[in-house]
Specification:
The structure is a homodimer of 256-residue chains.
Chain A: H1 14-27, H2 40-47, H3 51-64, E1 67-70, E2 74-77, H4 92-98, E3 103-113, H5 117-123, E4 131-140, E5 143-153, H6 160-163, H7 170-178, E6 182-193, H8 196-202, E7 209-219, E8 224-233, E9 239-244
Antiparallel strand pairs in A: 1-2, 3-4, 4-5, 5-8, 6-7, 7-8
Helix pairs in contact in A: 1-3, 2-3
The first copy, chain A, binds a DNA duplex (30 and 30 nucleotides) through helix 3.
Amino acid sequence: MDSLNLDRQSVVPLYYQIQQHLLGHIRSGGFKPGTPLPSEEVISKRLRVSRMTARQALKSLCSLGVAYSQRGKGTFVSAVKLEKNIRQVLSFSEEMEACGSRPHSELIALEAVLPGEDVADALCLQPADKVIRLRRVRIADSLPMGVECSCVPLRLFPDLLEKFDPRASLYRTLSEVYSVHIVHADEVVEAGLANSEEARLLRVAKGSPVFLFTRTAYAESGQAIEYVKSTFRGDRYKIKNRLGRQSNGGWVGGSA
Amino acid sequence: MDSLNLDRQSVVPLYYQIQQHLLGHIRSGGFKPGTPLPSEEVISKRLRVSRMTARQALKSLCSLGVAYSQRGKGTFVSAVKLEKNIRQVLSFSEEMEACGSRPHSELIALEAVLPGEDVADALCLQPADKVIRLRRVRIADSLPMGVECSCVPLRLFPDLLEKFDPRASLYRTLSEVYSVHIVHADEVVEAGLANSEEARLLRVAKGSPVFLFTRTAYAESGQAIEYVKSTFRGDRYKIKNRLGRQSNGGWVGGSA
DNA sequence: CGTGCCTAGTTGTCTAGACAACTGGGGTCT
DNA sequence: AGACCCCAGTTGTCTAGACAACTAGGCACG
């Protein structure tokens, strides 16, 4: 706390500088789980910022999940493990890189087609709208992990067929070439058994346990961007989820 | 917007009254996806509140996921489906009630035992600490859905064995009797095949596809409260996830 | 001993402003 | 037509305060 010099000329907001400084102390063990963080008042006085700025720094730590506030008591370090590998909206490439594997893909199909009803529904398409259909075997460290069939509306990305390198990450391409950023996705997972084709592509026995994913990915506006169906090996692939309370926008009505 | 009369005497915060009012308009279709919400300035002027209060109302809608802000442009209604059934930290009972099924349980075991190494690790127990082990078959509408084995530290709930009704919801009991509220959980899901015992309890063929869940649930402080291993039928149980961007505490560094 | 009161410390909410940074449109100059 | 500037509107950040609500501990009183 003492050693922090705020840079008031920087483009980096003050509250963010404070947040990062506290986060550093938490990660390095300077503040242990359960112990109180400096109060808004203390931060405010020591760093010569207004209380609202100090507050914003503390609130941002809460929304990261590394701290929690109790009215009348203080703001405390949570024992939540930061480093734990939590699944976000990630492309297969990003997911594999995050756990240290080298991902690549084997292209099965890349074409513009008329979508099935489920696809058209999920992507909210007009009857005549085509989609770009991308079917790939996903491979990590030379081991086939899953078969993925991804559909994106042709209307939104008319020249994607020419511009897309099938070995690259689809999400990265959408972000870099079209400035479309996937920010969330809804996903349904089922447990099933590999059929003959899947077994052949994944090099497992027919009837092996597999995950069946059906995922719809959305941009910030809520516009549906991608509909994916994929089959992943149950023996080499695990799903890690962090389930949370739905943050209800802050206020907790008091019936107590 | 026009018809809202703020109650300045109420214990309900102003920003929350505004948030609820806007949320009502969004849900009822008064504001359609993609359209801008009233700006901070407009809300501030029209409702005679300070801009920071109007801002807090809009930010809380963003954190609910029903809106998003763009600097220099405005705050817009997101097309995210509110009603979609997204999995949170829920007990089986709550989960089944949420989708309209009547849950109940068949008790297999309820006892205090010395935990295995995986359990002790996950719950951060001392070597001699016992756990309460609760093994149940989970049933929805008379159909067996899964087998669940739940462990909680005896030290935290010394009289739970007497006070707990095995037919009730464990989470509800912990919340009501001990004021311990589960706020998040880490979960690993694997795809597997039912062994003989599971097949018998779940009334499926041996070798049927199943989900294997391993879940650790935490209170707000980050204290681990419960460690669960469960096996659920792959044919009747689906996982629905909403994957999100990790909210990073607000600031996006500009390399653009 | 316990009950109740008071007080210091803390977070929650709210005000009324200020400037910065960015967007998008319109107008002007070249 | 294109490049540039300016301006109004919007969100992001920040200030310096205020009062309310709650917690926990100390203290006096019964």
